[in-house]
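From the methods appendix. Each design record in this collection lists the tokenized structure first, followed by the designed amino acid sequence. Records were kept in a plain field format so they could be parsed without special tools. The example shown here is representative of the layout used throughout.

RECORD:
FOLD TOKENS (421 positions):
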């Protein structure tokens, strides 16, 4: 344990304001005493799934993230992981742990409106984020626990909510200020718990690369520094895992990439839509109050050439984004370097944002992200062609020997070639 701590502490803590002490962080952990590993699962392997928010598909090579690149050499990877549409944080993190497209698991955007219930989901609203009624599907931690296997989460979308009647056995309420070194340290400590209560599926989340990509752009020195800082944490995790001598699969992935943004499209120049009916971004949604309003707005907005306008049921099938009432009645889709707003003024809104995401990931390569995996039965130095992120869920279920108990959109066949025969 002392050797592990010395490895972790060799990395300086990235500057955070009002950083909590480690004991304060640990006191926030929520722990269920009722879930234990069944005897049949004790010899099963372990999977750690790490998400580096906003880590574009080419960042590792572009910025020489040596620890992440070492995973590719020692295991398997893809040239580009294709996020689900829209390529936003909350929809894609929940897709990664359910194997479902956003239209099927229900988290259709970072914030959205449910016309059936009259309620709104917003990522800044703790009550909504922690309400399991919003989340469909069976997240990986619940799939494991249903089958007698403990789970843990050091942050992940959905991990704070009571979904299917449970949480991960160990989890934390999200706190962006928690130092990354502490998160890595806790993952290693969880893997040293007694076998009966040791988690077999663990999730870990880092947001810094996304934050810097938004603020300074994907090609900035600040984004490079963020990539290399998080890469150090991956290195610390890998070194710590070597000392534990456990059969561990390490998965490093992300929710989406990042593109430069430099132009605003203000729909207020074309139509009058109350802000409470509008959600903006590279993909914008308008919630109308009547069919007549839908038709009227569509007739005007569809004449514009710098974005595409669809009625919900007409969003192209390849995007898998037309089969949920939480999706706006109108969906507006643009391409980089544009983003869509609804404002009386657009003079200052780009001053604090140089990068963004959300665009069609099939049309915009920069939305692509990463998938790296190493572990006992993974082929070395093997690369997959681009594939969709819904296919990670069945791969992890296979590695843990879990049975998928409800229909999903992902397929194990897509990634099965990385497994040693």
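DESIGN:
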């Amino acid at each position: 344990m002392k050797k592990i701590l010395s490895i972790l502490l060799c990395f300086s803590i990235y500057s955070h304001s009002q950083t909590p002490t480690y004991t304060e962080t640990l006191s926030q952990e929520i722990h269920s005493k009722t879930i234990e590993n069944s005897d049949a699962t004790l010899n099963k392997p372990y999977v750690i799934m790490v998400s580096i928010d906003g880590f574009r598909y080419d960042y590792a090579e572009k910025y020489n993230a040596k620890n992440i690149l070492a995973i590719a050499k020692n295991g398997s990877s893809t040239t580009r992981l294709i996020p689900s549409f829209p390529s936003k944080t909350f929809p894609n993190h929940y897709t990664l742990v359910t194997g479902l497209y956003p239209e099927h698991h229900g988290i259709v955007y970072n914030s959205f409106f449910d016309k059936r219930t009259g309620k709104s989901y917003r990522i800044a609203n703790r009550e909504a984020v922690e309400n399991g009624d919003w989340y469909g599907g069976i997240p990986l931690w619940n799939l494991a626990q249903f089958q007698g296997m403990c789970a843990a989460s050091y942050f992940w979308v959905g991990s704070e909510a009571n979904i299917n009647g449970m949480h991960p056995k160990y989890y934390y309420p999200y706190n962006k200020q928690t130092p990354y070194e502490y998160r890595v340290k806790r993952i290693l400590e969880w893997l040293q718990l007694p076998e009966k209560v040791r988690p077999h599926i663990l999730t870990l989340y880092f947001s810094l690369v996304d934050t810097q990509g938004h603020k300074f752009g994907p090609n900035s020195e600040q984004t490079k520094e963020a990539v290399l800082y998080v890469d150090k944490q991956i290195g610390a995790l890998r070194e710590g895992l070597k000392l534990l001598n456990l059969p561990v699969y390490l998965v490093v992935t992300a929710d989406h990439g990042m593109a430069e943004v430099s132009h605003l499209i203000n729909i207020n120049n074309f139509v009058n839509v109350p802000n409470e009916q509008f959600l903006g971004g590279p993909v914008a949604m308008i919630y109308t109050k009547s069919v007549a309003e839908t038709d009227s707005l569509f007739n005007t907005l569809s004449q514009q050439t710098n974005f595409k306008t669809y009625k919900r049921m007409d969003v192209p099938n390849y995007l898998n984004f037309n089969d949920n009432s939480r999706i706006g009645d109108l969906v507006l889709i643009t391409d980089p370097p544009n983003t869509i707003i609804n404002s009386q003024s657009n003079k200052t809104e780009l001053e604090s944002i140089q990068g963004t995401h959300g665009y069609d990931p099939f049309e915009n390569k920069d939305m692509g992200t990463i998938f790296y995996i190493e572990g006992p039965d993974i082929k070395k130095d093997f690369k997959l062609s681009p594939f969709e992120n819904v296919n990670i869920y069945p791969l992890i279920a296979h590695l843990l020997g879990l049975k998928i108990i409800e229909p999903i959109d992902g397929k194990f066949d897509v990634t099965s070639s990385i497994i040693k025969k």
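APPENDIX NOTE: Residues 1-20 have pLDDT under 50 and may be disordered.
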